[in-house]
Amino acid sequence: MPTGHRDISTCSEEAEFEPQRPCIVSQDINTLCKDVTKETSRRHQLDKVVELTQGKFPLLIS
Fold this sequence. Notes:
By secondary structure, the chain is an all-alpha fold. 52% of the residues lie in helices and 0% in strands.
């Protein structure tokens, strides 16, 4: 089991050369990588919204 953070951008290259790696969950590795990236940026945006609104709408965040 690999340790540490895996760089999402290397997923599709690893799919070709290291098929035994756990990165290969889905047959369409590019879709998998995009989903992970999309989810990460969505969470980042949510964090930003929470950060920006925290002082103004304390009752909304509970």
